[in-house]
Amino acid sequence: MVFYVILRVAIPSPLHKLFDYLCPVELEGLAKPGMRIKVPFGSREIIGIVIDTDVHSDYSSKQLKTALMLLDADPVLDATQFWLARWAAHYYFYPEGEALQQALPVLLRKGQEPTFAHATLWRATAHATLSSLATSAKRQRELLELLLRNPQGVSTEAIKIEGFSTPLLKALADKHLAESFASHPRPYQFATGSETILKEAPLTLNEEQASALYSLLNPSHFHTLLLEGITGSGKTEVYLQAIEAILKVGKQALILVPEIGLTPQTLSRFKARFQVPVMALHSGLTDRQRLDAWLMARDGSARILIGTRSAIFTPMKNPGIIIVDEEHDPSFKQQEGFRYHARDLAVLRAKKEDIPLLLTTATPSLESLHNALDGRYQHLHLRQRAGNASAPKFKFLDIRGEALQAGMAPELIHHIRQHLSAQTQVLIFLNRRGFSPSLICHDCGAVNECTRCDARMTLHRSPAHMHCHHCDRQTPIPKRCHQCHSEDLRPSGAGTERTEEQLKSLFPNIPVLRIDRDSTSRKHALENMMKQIHTGQPCIMIGTQMLAKGHHFPRVTLVAVLDADAGLFSADFRGMEKTAQLILQVAGRAGRAELSGEVLLQTHHPDHPMLAALVTQGYEAFAKSELVLRQGAGLPPFHHHALIRAEASRQGWAEAFLRSIREAIETHLSLPPGNHWSGPFPSPMEKRAGLFRSQMLIQGRERRHLHTLLRMIMQEVEHNPMKNKVRWSIDVDPIDS
Ligand code: ADP
Ligand code: ZN
Ligand code: ZN
């Protein structure tokens, strides 16, 4: 009788299971969990991750295929990543093999070596000193400084990542101040030691900041601190100093920012403060750059890692702290496929690595606030604006019965005029891009709708077309009504393009800058607009939530929210929370420096209790009363939710599929305690991109029992005859319905 060693492997496939393979004799004892392994799968060869070695299989050795080869000599996923990705796969009901793949840079998924590209390295020449350059050659001096600090060499790639262009490098080379030398498998490694950490001196913290910093760093073990402070109160300064402290003891910092928050401005603040390598992990990197950044994070040479959601899976050799900036931001939750929440995973990871976790925001998510009120998180406030700035003043503009011009009331236009004549800047927020959200026939009332979605087409003027914002379908602007053939088609309602047009005609001598996805799609468009804003000259910005976050506009004194009611009456129970957060985010752009700010909210409901509480008592009072409502209604964060979504090409299929699962479980099994079902119901937009969608909501008092039920559902789907006719998914802790 021959004994085989059997390997358990996670394979990137939609199947929710692991696969067993016979271990070839020459690999016995070599395979370890977290290594990549090539295996036969169906008719293909595929790269999987070893989960376990020497397991007992339910299959006989005759039924099992033999693994082909190991790709790694050491586990490519370190223990933390391996654990985190698997934990998340289980928690979010996503196939383990896919989850593990997503924790790896693309090139490693494809089987490349986890090594740096062979790079040309640059160093300062033997006689080069800073004094060889004129003080006016600022960038050249900075580049030379970088080279002088790193005598072992810096790769061309790394020089670019640091923000220096090739012509600058060439200029130094032409002056014989820099030279390239033999390639080396490692792009750069920076000198460590506390004297080289800072580039500029930190600010002197005020009392609240100092106490937040102290609480964050003591103990240096795992604990979570929720730092709540209005925009401009100095939260970033607190964490910059926390990072400084952990860099001094040789550790690394990981900062997660919202999708929209990773602006050149954010990065330059880090680069201005620190001399250590700062790695930005964003969608603009090439696969090669991403792998290099990942390798530098893993070997400890990248000291500060800033990235969006997926950066939570970046390895760190010497983890020191994790920071989630704007922790309430919805972009931390992935909305398709692997539906993890990066903030929630950050808590798990910080605990596993036993390091402090900082959550910062002006408007805490109700989840985090609940954790803070229950004492699981420490909760500190920054109540003053740092420096000299003061908090903006709110005012409602009751627009009932007012004649609006492209969404603006006469009184608002009057205010805009006043602020502009005081030589300051104005920011107008309207979370609706395009010219008009609908095109209506004036004779019969028919609306131009998307044929693939239950939604209206948005009218765009520049360039002129109709656009569905849900499925991206685009058509020419119709000349006639599709119902009565009338030619009298009129835009109804205002989007950013229309308001921009109106502002331009009202204020012909003032620059009007529209900032939304359309106007910033061209390269450098946003950058150029930001440059103009930062000249400080009077101007009007009109934009969507792209304007709401992260930017620092010291000359803005008036912020206007054109539609403060959006979201007040939404079917989504989070509508209020989201509206409140967005209003305060936008308001935070006003009066961030010496000038004080004014915030005008246009509303049809100036007496709405939520808006009133928000404006008169502030976010926390609002949030606490929301929590009371949520508790009464058994909603998150008190109870837990999971959504089972399904979609199919024919109406009724998705719903029938979900119903059959529910019925099968209710007939044959007993529900774990504390769970409730509702649905299946048609999704809020039943038809989208040509598919008919349905969903079922599961609510549970305890996660444990909720997960038991979800596992039952997974098993039930396996046997369901309809499963191939629908696309279905589980969303644990969904953030929208
Ligand atoms: P937040 O992250 O809360 O929006 P920031 O940390 O960006 O706040 O601070 C807002 C502004 O105030 C920045 O220009 C920052 O340089 C300045 N600032 C922060 N802390 C201090 C301080 N202790 N003293 C003086 N200025 C400060
Ligand atoms: Zn018509
Ligand atoms: Zn559509």
From TrEMBL:
Identify the residues that the record assigns to the Helicase ATP-binding domain, covering every copy: 216-382
State its Enzyme Commission number(s): 5.6.2.4
**Stored InterPro entries:** DEAD/DEAH_box_helicase_dom (IPR011545), Helicase_ATP-bd (IPR014001), Helicase_C-like (IPR001650), P-loop_NTPase (IPR027417), PriA (IPR005259), PriA_3primeBD (IPR041222), PriA_3primeBD_sf (IPR042115), PriA_C (IPR041236)
GO CC term (a single one): primosome complex
Q: Which Pfam families match?
A: DEAD, Helicase_C, PriA_3primeBD, PriA_C, Zn_ribbon_PriA
Q: What class of enzyme is it?
A: isomerase
UniProt superkingdom: Bacteria
Spell out the reaction equation it catalyses.
ATP + H2O = ADP + phosphate + H(+); Couples ATP hydrolysis with the unwinding of duplex DNA by translocating in the 3'-5' direction
User: Where in the sequence is the signal peptide annotated?
Assistant: none
| Residues engaged in binding Zn(2+) 1 | 441, 444, 481, 484
Give the cofactor binding note: Binds 2 zinc ions per subunit.
- PROSITE patterns tied to this protein: HELICASE_ATP_BIND_1
User: Which family is this protein grouped under?
Assistant: Belongs to the helicase family. PriA subfamily.
Per its database record, what is this protein's job?
Initiates the restart of stalled replication forks, which reloads the replicative helicase on sites other than the origin of replication. Recognizes and binds to abandoned replication forks and remodels them to uncover a helicase loading site. Promotes assembly of the primosome at these replication forks.
For this entry, the protein name equals Replication restart protein PriA
The organism of origin for this protein: Nitrincola tibetensis
Q: What is the lineage of its organism?
A: Bacteria, Pseudomonadati, Pseudomonadota, Gammaproteobacteria, Oceanospirillales
Per the record, the gene is priA
